[in-house]
Amino acid sequence: MHKIAGWSTVTAETKWIISAFFHQLRGTVSKAKLRPPIIEGHTDVLVFLLLSFILFLFNWALRIFFVEPVAAQLLGKWSTRAKVQKFAQSSLEMFFYLTFSSFGAIIVPRQDWFWTPSLWFKEFHSGKMIYISDALKAYYVLYAARYGQGLVSLLVEHKRKDFREMALHHFVTVWLIGLSYTYGWTRVGAVVMVLLDPADVPLHIAKQFKYVGDVRGGARKKSCQAAADFFFMVFMFLFAIMRLGLYPYVVWTAHRESAPYWKQQIGGRTCIILLYVLLALQIYWFTLVLRVAIKVITCGSAEDVRSDDDEDDSSEHKKRK
Question: pTM of the predicted model, to two decimals?
Answer without folding.
Answer: 0.87
